[in-house]
UniProtKB/TrEMBL annotation:
This is Membrane-bound lysozyme-inhibitor of c-type lysozyme. Residues 1-19 form the signal peptide. Keywords: Signal. It comes from the Bacteria.
């Protein structure tokens, strides 16, 4: 019986350590993605927004008027903007911001991109 309890304690401890380390790595990774997203500029028209069949990554192809570009901006993004995008949507995300805009049939929509890290998000100042 003691062997069973020791095994259970060992696995519980192992699981706890893994959970703590995973959350630290994830937070760091998500903050890096937030920082990259803030520094990315997107201005164009969606050609395709689809999940990669191999790794289920969210990939968007868009035209900026000159080139066809791809963006991985939505891989770990949580606000679900990606699922709303359609081919033909005009899109805009300014460098230095997490605000994402898209226009479809004359209707403008907006969402703030969310990666689970608020370290880089400017706090709203209330006067």
């Amino acid at each position: 019986m003691k062997f069973g309890i020791k095994n259970m304690l060992f696995y519980f401890l192992l699981f706890s350590i893994h959970a703590v380390c995973y959350s630290c790595v994830s937070k760091s990774s998500l903050c890096e993605e937030t920082s990259r997203a803030i520094n990315e500029k997107i201005d164009g028209v969606v050609i395709d927004a689809s999940l990669n069949e191999f790794n289920h990554a969210k990939i968007m192809l868009y035209s900026n008027g000159y080139d066809t570009l791809s963006s991985w901006l939505f891989v770990n993004e949580r606000s679900h903007v990606f699922s709303q995008l359609q081919a033909g949507d005009s899109i805009l995300k300014r460098k230095g911001s997490l605000d994402f805009y898209w226009i479809r049939d004359g209707n403008k929509s907006y969402e703030r991109l969310d990666y689970g890290c608020n370290d880089h998000v400017k706090k709203r100042v209330v006067n």
